[in-house]
Amino acid sequence: MLNRNCIAMISCCLLLCFTTLTHAQQRQLSPLKVAANGRYFETSDGKPFFWLGDTGWLLFTRLTREETEQYLDNRKQQGFNVIQVMVLPAVTAANIYGDSALVGTNVGKPLTTKGNQPTDPTQYDYWDHVDFVVAKAAEKGLYLALVPVWGSPVKTGLVKEKDAVTYASFLASRYKKYPNIIWMNGGDIKGSDSMNVWMAIGNTLHKQDPGHLVTFHPRGRTQSSDWFHNSSWLAFNMFQSGHRRYDQDTTKGDKAYGEDNWKYVAVDYNRKPVKPVIDGEPSYEGIPQGLHDPAEPFWKDSDVRRYGYWSVFAGACGYTYGHNAVMQMHKQTDGKGVYGVREYWKDAINAPGAGQMQYLEKLICSRNYATRVPDQSLVADNGKGYQHLLATRGKDYAFIYTYTGRNISVNMGHIAGRRVKAAWYDPRNGETKEIGTYPNEKGTVVFDPPGEEKEGNDWVLVMDSVK
Questions:
Q1: Where does the record place the Apiosidase-like catalytic domain (predicted)?
Q2: What DSSP state is assigned to residue 243?
Q3: In the chain, how many domains are there?
Q4: What is the rounded CA–CA span in Å between residue 376 and residue 314?
């Protein structure tokens, strides 16, 4: 049996190991940049970076410091590397400690105090708490995609262009020293609503904090490229595929994509100049289909998997997951909450879909990331709706995703090698089942996924060149 001295010594060693690890993580973290080919992100030392995001929108305002650590630790363990957060959900924003963000409601007047002692309310303010969260995230190897001010108060005229410039300057000055910042202009709004404000924020952040990437989070079923693709401050495109089913999409014209989020990717992938693209808000796990009516079915883990694999295989540089209870940090003391929320954030962080997102990143990063391209010519029968197959490949490998487990007819000869080794990859648990080796000659080979054909029986056909 260990005595108290031994236990104490072991505890000290474990603490030392943990401290060394977190300090090493913080040293290794560096600002992201766009790769030379314009298709994906990489770190300052040239290592490819696959964006796996979570929408922790109200992290700064709803969680205590202790709860913040619990949330960040959980997301780190699940493989997430980016957290999307609102800096100001509203111009009346205050955190859980009662600290207001602004003097009055003017974004041009952030409310700051001297000092940053958490135990002294006269020396700790809203921005000190934001600093704490940003630093903790960096310590854990997590990037924060920060929305300076949400779109609704801007649209209603509560944010003036002059004050927006002052506010963006304040943010740039305060946070440009942190390695883990990404700026996410906008916030669930069309770029055409208060265009002058969004341009002012984007230009100011880009000019005064050139070391961090800037994008725009748009309204549902729109994309940043609709307004800002050629803006110098927009480093990469983001779209919000939204929370509606095919039959709920009321979009007019040629952009009635319904649930086909891969179509947004295809549009942006072909734009010039080339910029990375990502789905920054697909349907959330645990939210009603259509968003507002709790009587509708709720989106499940299989749905968020589908959005992830569809968009990434179509050419996206990553994917952002979301959960209804987590995005609003819903607690037992909140009453009903919004959007028909049925869970609390502390339980919902362990929802099935949240744990499964890591397998998408692991698959993509298991092969040469830099050479990957979307390639639908691999598939003999693409299919429509939930039957649609999405294909991506490198020089010596190919992935094809089926949401329903239907047969996949593959046009061979599109990757290197005289033969290919085939396997099934399970998006639910990351396990691989070998199929066999096939001639890689012109012609078609049909692959039958495990299980019966139905929605949610999703699989990835993996093919690797055999020399």
A1: 36-369
A2: S
A3: 2
A4: 9
